[in-house]
Structure formats: structure tokens, C-alpha cells
């Protein structure tokens, strides 16, 4: 069987153009200059050439609001000792070469398809191989831990802790690496997804953070979803009813109900047999039927659908017919003929 190429199966021989080449932060053959340039966006650190190769540091970088994606190489075997990162987590994935990592008691090797994450509150020291090229995500500690609380049940006041290295060759790891590669390739083609409309760029960042949490080993692996009872379901449904015409996300509903999104989903499946977003769609369809059954002189199917968040009219028509056995326009016509 022919092996399917995995994410970041890139040809990175010596002299190859690095990903994000059009987003160069700096390049330098001077160790002190490289240390200073890296410190500006990461933190102060010790940087020593161990041996071999010609030192030639390069950092390419695209920045979002809470995270950045970086491509880095030093061109020679180097030791990097930043101490504690303090304000950010750092995901590392060598796409060429390898690195030995000591991050407190989180000691591991990365490379050969394996990645890892540096915890911000532990002393860190790394040795990168001479040919090492890494893709890295620098993500603000507050942002990632907030997401871990709302999506993964990190207890209030607890710290998020990563451990060990993780293969990105299958399952959620492969999906995450594929998404990360897509973001990098789009930037290489001139479309930086972090520069898009605010909501879209925010969603790209959130998806990357969720992918990081789903693909890496951490202390949340065995944390069960906190229970949410009928009260949370009632609060969420009341919020839906009051905001049918407004954009509503699972996260917003969960916040209104005072539980995590995962807990709210579990509560809805247990008490309603459906997800919260399915219940929301059903409510909106029922409101559409009401609006079309009691039309005003200027009522139109398009206006009713879009006012309730159905912007794909064909899909709206299919969902409406599946629920009511007729099309939206048929409902409107019958109401006007009555």
C-alpha cells in the first residue's frame, strides 16, 4: 500500500525555501543579534552554538490576537535556555531534524513526526539538532487556559499542564497538523487567515487552540465533563427563545447557563435527545413557520429566513419541508389566501 503523505511532509533539503518565507521576522548569522531578535517576541534566553554547521538563524512569523505561528531554524546545533516562559505556552513540531527538550519534569524528544508543548511555569532548556527546522505556535497562557476551562473542564484556579511528546501521524494529531499546515500554506499563497474579518480570524485561532488541546497530552485527559442539570437546559432554551434573531454560539449559550459547552451538550442529549444547536435550529424553524403563517404586507421568505440566521436559502427550504411537509413559499401563499 502506498503511504499517504502526512501533514508537513515538505521537501526541506539544505537551501530549500522555508514555509512563511514571505513573512520573515529576521535572519542573522550573528548569535547575539539572533538572541535579541527572538527575545523581542518570546522572552529573554541563553543561546549557545554547540557545534557543527554554520549558524544562520531564521524566524518567519504570522501573528493573530492570542497566538502566532512561527517557522524557526538556527542552522547549527544549538542550546536554547529561556528559563520559564511565564506568559505563553509554546507548541513545537520539527519538520526537519529533532530536538531534546527539558521543561521542568516534562522531558521528551521531538522530531520524526512527534511534537510537544512547553509549559510556561517550568524551567526550560532545549538542544536543537544542526538541521532542525520547527513550526511553532506561541499562544498566550491566559487564552489557552480560558479555552481549556470552557471547552475541556479545567477546574477554576487550576493550571494547564502538558506532558511528553505526541505523534501527529493519525487521528486528532493528523487533523491538527493538517489544519496548521493549511494556515501556513494559505499565508504562503498570500492569504494570511489571521488578517481576515475579525470573526473569521478569531475562529481560526480558536480552532488551532482546540486542535492543540485535542492532539497533545495534558492533565485534562481524564477530567470528566462536569454535570449540567435540567436548570442549565432551561436557561439555555430561554436564552435561545429571547435571541432567535441574533447570532448564538454554543459557547455563548453555555456561559448564559453557567456551565461548560461540553456539559451543556451532555445535558441536552440526556434531557432532549438532541444537541443544543439542533434545538436552536428547530426553534428558529418554528418561528419561521409562525412568521410566514401570519405575514404582513411586505413579508418574504428571504427576509424571514435571513432574520432568523438561515443564510443558505436552499438548505433552509429543505429543513423547513422536512419539518412541516411543505415549502416556506407554500406556507406564505396559503396564509395570504386565507
CATH class of the largest domain: Mainly Beta
Q: Name the CATH superfamily assignment of the largest domain.
A: Regulatory protein AraC
Sheet/helix structural class: alpha+beta
Strand content: 15-25%
Instruction: Report the total helices.
Output: 11
The coarse silhouette is elongated
Helix content class: 40-55%
| CATH architecture title of the largest domain | Sandwich
* Quaternary structure of the protein: single chain
List the helices and strands and how they pair.
Layout: E1 24-28, H1 31-41, E2 46-53, E3 57-63, E4 67-73, E5 76-83, E6 88-96, E7 98-103, E8 106-111, E9 114-118, E10 124-128, E11 133-140, H2 141-152, E12 165-167, H3 171-188, H4 198-215, H5 230-242, H6 250-257, H7 261-271, H8 276-293, H9 301-307, H10 313-324, H11 328-337
Antiparallel strand pairs: 1-3, 2-5, 3-4, 4-11, 5-10, 6-9, 6-11, 7-8, 7-10, 9-12
Question: Can you summarize this structure?
Answer:
The protein contains eleven helices and twelve strands.
Features:
Arc Repressor Mutant, subunit A; transcription regulation; Homeodomain-like_sf; five-stranded antiparallel sheet; DNA-binding; AraC family transcriptional regulator; Jelly Rolls; disordered N terminus; 338 residues; 11 helices; HTH_AraC; alpha+beta; 2 domains
Structural summary, described in words:
- The protein is of the alpha+beta class.
- It folds into 2 domains: 195 residues, Sandwich (Jelly Rolls), CATH 2.60.120.280; 108 residues, Homeodomain-like (Arc Repressor Mutant, subunit A, Orthogonal Bundle), CATH 1.10.10.
- It contains 11 helices and 12 strands.
- The strands form 2 sheets. A 7-stranded antiparallel sheet has the order 1-3-4-11-6-9-12, sandwiched between helices. Strands 2-5-10-7-8 form a 5-stranded antiparallel sheet, covered by helices on one side.
- Strand 3 and strand 4 form a beta hairpin.
- The N terminus is likely disordered.
